[in-house]
Amino acid sequence: MKKLINDPLKVADELVEGLVEAYNGECRHVGTRSIVKSDIPEGKVSLLIGGGSGHEPIYHGLVGRNLADGAACGDIFAAPPPNIVLEATEAVNRGKGVLYLYGNYAGDVLNFDLGAELASDDDIEVRTVLIWDDVCSAPPTQKHNRRGIAGLVPIVKLAGAASQKVSSLAELEAVAKKAVLQTRSVGVSMAPGSIPATGKPTFEIDEDKIGLGMGIHGEPGVGEIPMTSADELTAQMLDLLFADYEKDEEVDALAPGDEIVFFVNSLGATTMMELLIALRKAKAILMERGLKIYDVIVGPLVTCQEMSGISFSVTRLDEELKAYWDMPCQSVCYSKMEGHYGG
Amino acid sequence: MGKSSLSINEVRDMMLAAADRIIESEPILTDADRALGDGDHGVGMERGMTAVKVALAGKEFPSVGKVFVGVGTAMMSSMGGASGAIFGILFRSGGKAVGDATEFTAVELANLLREGTDQVMTKGAKPGDKTMVDALFPAAGKAGEVSGRPIDEALVAVAAAAAAGRDASKDMIATMGRAKTLGENSLGKPDAGAVSVSIILAAMSDFVAGL
Which of A10, A31, A148, A247 is the most buried (most CB within 10 A)? Predict the structure, then answer.
């Protein structure tokens, strides 16, 4: 694998330094490896995200205007240690508490919890909402054990907007929980990414197979299927998504008239061309179901180096979430104008 | 005639030897984790133990406990990931249990492993879940049994118990961490964290045997 890097053990530090340059003054580098918005007003309820590096432009690319206030950045594919979580927490705190919003991985939970303990020693109130949108990683009855994947983009977008409007940490927590509950994703993988420090692939999969429901680090999903066409794969993936809303007793099935944000993500190597071909078929299926597509996101936003694969994420909006969706936002990872695209 | 105890500086040098052994073992750990996880355990442990060397080399410590707390803090703050937090908890809480002791006997070894293992297990893993607990738990149990023996003999027995635990993890199905989604496909391979624990204890034992 030809990788344009310097010291293999410093890739996380150097990419974060570069990210700060991409922010061009909007965000600054804090402590060991945190990124924090330059202008967080006093009295704001703060939103902190984070996780392992190597999945750029998330997570730390979602710090920005009407998005997250800061990110605690781990090493490549590794959760940030507690001291980094603490330094980021202290840097974003403006006296109204800090919501931790991140993907549900054992390492992240352990380290963010330890960071929250350290923050409570400093009298900073912290609450945590975990993102668990990957429907193929556990059945609906155990959905709190699921992994967090691409659904974090619309979820952080909504929580970031809400964090500008709410007056308490509890209110922000409630919005984030609602966004998580209404967001579901299905991912597939066709080829692995590589670990920058070793050059080794993150997993193995046969040339003629697709890992259905495979996680962004190559965690197995619901099984391998033969390589197929974009249209057939799209239909299978959407079936899994629809089925999940139907089976989960905590949410309504997707019904005609429901308004959704639809996100087609590339894991890295899959091209925009392929995403658009999948979106074309997905749109037809979603319309057939009578769903209203309130907004569309397309692009490589949740990646794993040169991993080949795509994911679909659906976020169902109600009036409250629509108001937060309509707010403009800007960051390195995702930006939008006021309102929504077509629909 | 066995060696009954270690000085604070000998404990420090023992942990430096363990750090070197882990750093040398990076390819083994990477392969073990690639089979079940995402393959970053070796690099993470290498990074953690490199930080341990910086924290320990040439330093004087007021107690044995502080050496182990130093190991845990260095690992926790440099590694990240689940292993950074867990190895941090293991050595920091174990070191606190050893406390102000100025020599390291089999009693301190037993305290270190018992409290460290207990605290790691509060994070959810129990024996049989195919995690590092499967090496730690039998090692801590054995340390309790041999706490009346000279430290060199005790370490040999404890390292053997950890190695047996590591091997037993091959026949377990992962239920925690990223490997949990593998289910029965995780059979046949040891847990990478259990491999790390057994390497650390073997290196500690070998170092003391060479004194």
Answer: A148
A51-88: pLDDT as tens digits: 999 999 999 999 999 999 999 999 988 899 999 999 99
Residues of B with CB under 8 A from a CB of A: 30, 34, 37-40, 42-44, 47, 76-86, 88, 123, 176-178, 181-182, 185
Are A81 and B80 in contact (CB < 8 Å)?
A: yes
Assigned domain for B1 exists: no
- CB contacts < 8 A (A, B): 100
Q: Closest to A218 (Cβ–Cβ): which among B38, B77, B78?
A: B38
Verify whether the Cβ–Cβ distance B85 to A77 is below 8 Å: no
Q: Is A71 on the interface with B (CB under 8 A)?
A: no
pLDDT at A218: 81
Q: Given B30, B34, B123, which is nearest A110 (Cβ)?
A: B123
Q: For A275-326, write each residue's pLDDT tens digit.
A: 999 999 999 999 999 999 999 999 999 999 999 999 999 999 999 999 999 9
Sign for the CA dihedral angle at B79, B84, B85, B88 comes to negative
Select from B36, B38, B131 the least CA-distant residue to B87: B131
Query: Of A111, A114, A217, which has the smallest distance from its Cβ to B38's Cβ?
Result: A217
Name the nearest CA neighbour of B29 among B41, B18, B17: B41
Find residues 202-241 of chain A whose CB sits inside 8 Å of chain B.
202-203, 215, 217-221
CATH at B175? 1.25.40.340
Residue B105 included in any domain: yes
Indicate the pLDDT class of residue B33, thresholds 50, 70 and 90: confident
CA angle A213, A216, A220 (to 5 degrees): 45
Domains of chain A in start order, with CATH, are: 8-181 (3.40.50.10440), 183-326 (3.30.1180.20)
Cα B206 to chain center, whole Å? 14
Chain B environment of A114 (Cβ under 8 Å): 76, 85, 88
- Please write the tens of the pLDDT for every residue from B164-204: 999 999 888 887 665 665 666 677 889 999 999 999 999 99
pTM of the shown model: 0.89
- The predicted structure's pLDDT at residue A9: 83
Q: Do A198 and B123 touch (CB under 8 A)?
A: no
Cβ burial of A232 (10 Å; 0-12, 13-18, 19+) is exposed
